[in-house]
Design a protein that fits this description.
The protein is built from 14 helices and 13 strands. It is α/β, with parallel strands linked by helices and 366 residues long. The protein has an eight-stranded mixed β-sheet, with helices on both faces. The protein has a five-stranded parallel β-sheet with strand order 2-1-3-4-5, with helices on both faces. Helix 11 packs parallel to helix 12. The longest helix is centred in the C-terminal third of the chain and has 15 residues.
């Protein structure tokens, strides 16, 4: 029957020529026309043929394809000069073939590549990342998602190697809140994790022990795909025990990103309208979570009145039963810290976030 082949999307004629040869003469079978990185990993075949000019070719793809037990062959046009072959080698592909080679040669290199391949490594971090990943979101309207994300990440970094990612697509504010330069940022981190994974640490700023990847300086000019964001979160999870992600408003949550999380915190405010919106937002988020993803509610800017705090907890317990609720009081020092671009070191806000941090104090096996 011969090897089962995956052909990455290509505008060059070699792909159709090789496919027709296999249909006419046998020796192998094309199992998949690969259109995306996710398909390259999930589809069933023995060896993937991919162009040096393929839009989704990078080191991360090569790592993930091999980790899934497949081999990979790079195809380049000799007329493009040495740069074409070099791109394949830089991506980690050592088995290459010229695009004008005979179809029989394509089949031969497939067989040779498969015979030289090693069994897939049984290491989950290659594709999913090992760190505990916590996403924060909430309804629109300045409910304090960024403030809680920054404070939680800083709290966790006191005991664990922790990173914070600003993935808010509309109003990324982590960099501004912590007084960080605009570069490097989210785009830098994604470029590194896709093309130079060994340099991912260079994309982060240090705030004490915390590694921070802020959002892009001009978010409207930058499009970040869910797959790229998942790759970044997973890449950070390979070297950090905790990854905290500011996801922005719930209406912007990509399903793929939500599914990669171990926990999600929905943030709202403690006034009557805010609590109602928080409950409805949490109900909406709950429908998109994976079965093993935990959810918690954070009620921000709660009055210190015992009666009011009791009412907030009662309303949420009735609407979202069984979900833990953490109350965070209003703290005037937050405004001063925000203007200074500094972390809040003490006060009632900090004490509440400390309690929130204890929920994720244990590094949980994956």
């Amino acid at each position: 029957m011969g090897p089962e082949i995956g052909l990455a999307a290509s505008a060059r004629e070699w792909s159709d020529r090789f496919h027709r040869f296999l249909l006419d003469h046998g020796g192998g079978t094309v199992r998949s026309r690969v259109m995306s990185p996710a398909q390259a990993v999930s589809s069933q075949f023995d060896v993937l043929f991919i162009d040096d000019v393929c839009s989704f070719l990078n080191q991360r793809l090569v790592i993930d394809v091999r980790a899934s037990g497949k081999s990979i062959v790079g195809v380049f046009a000799p007329s493009d000069g040495t740069d074409a072959k070099r791109r394949l080698l830089e991506a980690g592909i050592s088995d290459v073939i010229e695009s004008d080679a005979r179809a029989e040669e394509f089949l031969e290199i497939a067989a040779v590549t498969i015979s030289h391949s090693t069994p897939p490594r049984q290491v989950a971090v290659e594709t999913s990342g090992g760190g505990f990943r916590i996403g924060l979101t909430g309804p629109p309207g300045g409910v304090g998602v960024t403030e809680i994300a920054c404070a939680l990440a800083l709290e966790l970094s006191r005991r664990h190697k922790t990173s914070l990612v600003d993935a808010n697509p509309d109003w990324p504010s982590v960099g501004q809140r912590l007084g960080l330069p605009v570069h490097p940022n989210l785009r830098t981190g994604i470029d590194f994790v896709l093309h130079e994974p060994g340099r991912l640490d260079e994309a982060a700023h240090s705030v004490g022990a915390l590694a921070v990847i802020p959002g892009p300086a001009n978010p409207g000019a930058v499009t970040v795909s869910p797959a790229d964001l998942v790759a970044l979160i997973s890449g950070l999870g390979q070297s950090h025990s905790h990854v905290v992600v500011d996801l922005g408003h719930v209406i912007d949550l990509p399903a793929d990103v939500v599914r990669c999380l171990d926990a999600i915190l929905v943030v709202g405010t403690g006034d009557p309208v805010g609590v109602t919106r928080l409950a409805r937002t949490a109900e909406r988020v709950a429908t998109s979570l994976s079965p093993d993803c935990e959810m918690g509610l954070v009620v921000n800017k709660v009055e210190r009145s015992a009666r009011e705090r009791s009412e907030v907890v009662s309303v949420l317990a009735g609407s979202i039963p069984g979900v833990p609720v953490v109350l965070v009081p209003e703290d005037r020092d937050i405004r001063r810290a925000a203007w200074n671009g500094s972390a809040l070191e003490k006060g009632p806000f900090n004490r509440s976030v400390r309690r929130l941090g204890r929920i994720f104090d244990v590094v949980r096996p994956r």
